[in-house]
Amino acid sequence: MELREADEGDIAGIRGVARRSWETDYPDILSRETIAETVEEWYTPDRLAFDIGSDDAHVLVASVDGSVIGFAHAVGESGTGTLLRLYVDPDHRGAGVGTRLLSATCDRLAGVGCTDVEAMVLAENGPGNAFYRGFGFEPEREGETTIGDETHDEVVYALTL
């Protein structure tokens, strides 16, 4: 497995991992239509190209034989960094891909002066919550997020770097 900064050639792979992850992780939480619409809205090629090219964004991919199997997207330059997204293709879970992506992302954030990192997870996403807790993140507060036309509870986790 290779872990590296994303480039524009990874956009289709990132979109595919996001779609497969949402379809696997959220069918009991979100409707199929909401999943499809949200993935299309949040992971447009233009938005991903902007994020990949942004100076304050850190977009990493994990790949095998040139195919993207996971990605992480964080922002931050100092103070508290924010992990916006971290997904691993369902066929590659349980092999340490997510842990390596998270560790590398935290290292990147620390390298640009971040002292803490936050990550948000839907409260109903048991595996996502367990993943962050397993890495040492602590629940900091609860909040809400809107996906489609629905409001969902989320947990904001924090980790001191």
Describe the structure concisely for a colleague.
It contains five helices and seven strands, in the order βαααβββαβαββ.
Determine the number of helices (DSSP H or I, runs of at least 4 residues).
5
Strand composition percent: 35-45%
* Broad structural category: alpha+beta
- As an assembly, this protein is single chain
Write out the CATH superfamily name.
Gcn5-related N-acetyltransferase (GNAT)
Instruction: For the largest sheet, list the strands in their spatial order.
Output: 1-2-3-4-5-7-6
Low-confidence stretches: none
Overall CATH architecture: 3-Layer(aba) Sandwich
Give the overall shape, derived from the CA principal axes: globular
- Quick one: biggest sheet? 7 strands, mixed
Secondary-structure element series: EHHHEEEHEHEE
As a whole number of angstroms, the C-alpha radius of gyration is 15 Å
- Percent of residues in helices comes to 25-40%
The span between the termini is: 25 Å
Number of strands: 7
Count of folded domains: 1
List the helices and strands and how they pair.
Layout: E1 2-5, H1 11-25, H2 32-42, H3 45-53, E2 57-64, E3 67-75, E4 79-88, H4 97-111, E5 114-122, H5 126-135, E6 138-147, E7 150-160
